Amino acid sequence: MITLPVEFTAEQEALLQEEAGKLPASELALRELTADIVVHEVGLSQSAVAAIVLKSSKDARVQELFDKQVQTIISGLHRVDEIYRKNMSLETENFRKLLLALAEDVRVVLIIIAERVALMRQLNADAEAVDKKKIAEETSFLYAPLAHRLGLYTLKTELEDLSLKFSNYTIYKEIARALNEKKQQRDAYVAAFIKPVEEKLLQMGLHFHIKGRTKSIHSIYNKMQKQQCGVDGIYDLFAIRIILDSAPEKEKAECWQVYSVVTDMYQPNPKRLRDWLSIPKSNGYESLHTTVLGPENKWVEVQIRTERMDEVAEKGVAAHWKYKGGKAETGMDEFLKGVREMLESEQVDTKEAISEFRMNLYDEEVFVFTPNGDLHKLPKGSTVLDFAFSIHSGLGCRCVGGKIGGRNVPIKYVLHNGDQVEILQSAQQHPNESWLKLVHTSKAKSKIRQALKEVEFKDAAEGKELFERRFKNWKIDYTEGDLAHLSKKLGFKTISNFYQAIAQGALDLLSVRERFYSMQEQAAESSQGQSAVSAGNYVQMPAQQQEVRVRQDELVIDRNLKDVVYKLAKCCNPIYGDPIFGFVSITSGIKIHRQDCPNAADMRARFPYRIQPARWSGKAVGQHYPITLQVVGVDDIGIVSNISSIIAKEEGVLMRTISIDSHDGIFEGHMTILVATTEQLENVQRKIKTVQGVKSVSRM
Known about the structure:
By secondary structure, the protein is an alpha+beta fold. It folds into 5 domains: 158 residues, Hypothetical protein af1432 (Orthogonal Bundle), CATH 1.10.3210.10; 147 residues, Beta Polymerase, domain 2; 78 residues, no CATH class; 86 residues, no CATH class; 75 residues, Alpha-Beta Plaits. It is built from 26 helices and 22 strands. The strands form 6 sheets. Strands 1, 2, 3, 4, 5 and 6 form a 6-stranded mixed sheet that branches. A hairpin with a 5-residue loop joins β7 and β8. It is elongated and about 115 Å long.
């Protein structure tokens, strides 16, 4: 059984009770608490409650007994549940999907917030709940900002406080203790402050009530962080709220009357006046805020609003269904539309979108006007370019500046409250990368990126056509691998960037041709100088000595390696016995490098997907590797002949070249020898070190 906070028809209630009976006890308790919050603290009604109970139902009677509104909300809730069942991480593409699901219908957002409040309250009571910190961080990251954006200030405050409680219990307990200790002192101060105000308002015949509101633990914590002090250093721990019972046509006038009374009695701080009566916030919030110097020279925040405004402030966008005939506030619809546009754009990087979304949740607003007097609300910090894109993306792309108060301003001009903005445009104007640093809104950034992508695709197509035509005329054959290698050699991250440079005239095709020929010649010389090695040069060791393949995807170089051609890299000259790895090159198959190759770190960082684990197996037969040794020592007569004599005596080791430089009694020699294994190499190095006068022998 479930207690339903609103009434349904007998058939509807029977289905709801039946579906509730299928739920586990813990899930039923969560949904029951969520439904209660949705009705009594958010202000939704039957549709929301039904959707909460039925969100996991597959009963066909749902469509028969409940209207399309219920089915729409159920669909949104079901999508959110699916995302969470996949172990959603806030830093993945699933976060984009979650936001899109929430943005479908504002009631889905309200229910999900209520569900999170219910979950946090249950965490509070459940000492055995696991991973509380993760849930608290997620609540702070997404759900509290969403509640703020939707005007659910009471629930937003509770979510923030509970998040702090589970993520930093020590500081939460410290602030709560300090608030409790000063409660009597605070209550006495509030009573002294409001007494003369109350008397004056009663004389004026106004209907009202006044209450003191202690600031939330989370907001006090934020002040402590900003001011770098303890809780004892925070003085404005409360605010006074005056709530009027006014007729709709008298609301604003009576609020200003109260403001006049308060500021006549107490000195106001003009910098702290916030007028959300004349122009409400886009989430519907209406109120008049001021800060005055009260008794004992303490600054006190005073909030003035009506009963209707207070309900909207407490229940946010949901209250508009009550006061506006079932229609949500226009600004909120625009916000959700903007979220959809931003997240649905394929050109937007997911992490950037998440960052911008969070940034816009808490942003304050600036109010500006078109030349015709139409009001536009933008996040604080928005520029003329943001304003142009807010009107139309085409206008934004052509914007060259604006005109404010009769004077021209650039596109980067930051808008101020009350500005009347005329957008100046030119058909020759086009977006560029620098614009992304000039705009503040998610919509503008999304549209600029989209425009830049379109330009890139167009230029890349033109550049590709031009490249292919010219190379065909020159009768030059090439592969996709050649092209990728060429573009990298020319310093381009992608082939698309390479084509764009050609289309934009930044790259001359004659110089491209010369570079291509040079690249081909180098490849040919490399092939001649380093012949391909056959796996057949290695023979298997006896079965008892064979190595075990520890990984199925490991390249084991032995006689069983069929149809694989590889080359030993010249940069590090690996020999049999060295720890090695393979690198899949674009044009030359697999190249074998030493693990300590000087280029290994760069290859692993830039091309991890092309690294192939490899190891030797068996033993080398008839294969010699050129190795260069550096020998440093005291210049002495006969030292070179002594070194040469040692190498000549070594079985299976051949001398190829030797060069000696001598300066100030010190010689430095470089010699290239041919060896078959690392064991031979180490033996040669050890013997050379025994020659009198030799200080060091190292492999190049």
